[in-house]
């Protein structure tokens, strides 16, 4: 049975959420998508996730939510992380960290998709070995899901490529997040795992990683603390669509996806209440 999985890159602030609200359900219908995985660690004001936004993402059509280095930026998400089975923080965080490192979703067709969330260690905060975590969790998750997906939330492309080869043949897909820049290296690895170094960002692309370019440039040029306002221009969804044969758990195709917001919709993406969103650091 063919199962289509959409892997959505870092959702940044209100613009990223709104383009999903406007476009995701029609994309699911048009491309016969069976499971939507979305990284939402930047969904709340550019950093973190709240329970209310988590629920909205599910309403928009997201089935599995993943997080990264900003997983605990909004502390009220911790209860959701502890209770819900469709949300995961990086599995190679401390074993004492709240939440779990895997998430599962049973598709309407029948096959279950299991996701392992991992975080890199180069240019990132300290974390346990992601490769050891993958080795530990893949056999466990195989007992719950026919299709396995690995998300590598990392700064260095070398770590992401290495993880792709590490899980090749053991996962249907390994996709990267965190850098907010879509890469053009999508491919099927030798043993049947779909791979892409970064699926990109869902949010405003007339920006520096979703933040207004003027404030980021000021910070870089002056080396002074500057509040980063969430940008609102050129809003789009970036993602990768992977087709998997559920009987083998191997990928058959991977395709980069880009969906632009309608101009008339994007004009209202700046605020729910007339106030800008701010985020104080990357």
Describe this structure in words.
This protein has 282 residues and is of the alpha/beta class. The chain has one domain (2-261): 4-Layer Sandwich (Purple Acid Phosphatase, chain A, domain 2), CATH 3.60.21. The protein contains 7 helices and 16 strands. The strands form 3 sheets. Strands 1, 2, 3, 4, 5, 12, 14 and 15 form an 8-stranded mixed sheet that branches. A 6-stranded mixed sheet has the order 6-7-8-9-11-10, with helices on one face. A two-stranded antiparallel ribbon has the order 13-16. Helix 1 (13-30) runs parallel beside helix 2 (51-60). The radius of gyration is 18 Å and the shape is globular. It starts with a strand and ends with a strand.
Order of helices and strands: EEHEHEHEEEHEHEEEEHEEEHE
**What number of structural domains do the residues give?**
1
How many helices? The count is 7
Question: Rounded to an integer, what's the Rg over CA atoms?
Answer: 18 Å
Largest sheet: 8 strands, mixed
């Amino acid at each position: 049975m063919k199962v289509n999985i959409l892997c959505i890159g870092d959702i940044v602030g209100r613009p990223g959420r709104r383009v999903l609200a406007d476009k995701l359900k029609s994309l699911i219908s048009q491309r016969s998508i069976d499971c939507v995985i979305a990284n939402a660690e930047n969904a709340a004001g550019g950093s973190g996730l709240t329970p209310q936004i988590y629920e909205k993402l599910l309403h928009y059509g997201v089935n599995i939510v993943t997080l990264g280095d900003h997983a605990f930026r909004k502390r009220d998400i911790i209860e959701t992380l502890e209770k819900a089975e469709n949300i995961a923080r990086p599995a190679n965080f401390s074993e004492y960290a709240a939440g779990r490192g895997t998430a599962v979703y049973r598709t309407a067709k029948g096959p279950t998709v299991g996701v392992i969330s991992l975080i890199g260690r180069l240019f990132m905060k300290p974390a346990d070995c992601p490769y050891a975590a993958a080795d530990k969790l893949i056999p466990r998750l195989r007992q719950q899901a026919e299709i396995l997906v690995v998300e590598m939330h990392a700064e260095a492309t070398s770590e992401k490529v290495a993880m792709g080869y590490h899980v090749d043949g053991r996962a249907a897909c390994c996709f990267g997040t965190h850098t907010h820049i879509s890469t053009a290296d999508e491919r099927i690895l030798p043993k049947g795992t779909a791979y892409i170094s970064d699926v990109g960002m869902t949010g405003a692309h007339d920006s520096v990683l979703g933040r207004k370019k003027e404030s980021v440039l000021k910070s870089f040029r002056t080396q002074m603390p500057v509040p980063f306002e969430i940008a609102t221009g050129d809003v789009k969804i970036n993602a990768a669509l992977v087709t998997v044969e559920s009987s083998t758990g191997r990928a058959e195709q991977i395709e980069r996806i880009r969906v632009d917001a309608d101009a008339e919709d994007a004009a209202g993406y700046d605020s729910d209440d007339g106030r800008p969103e701010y985020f104080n650091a990357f």
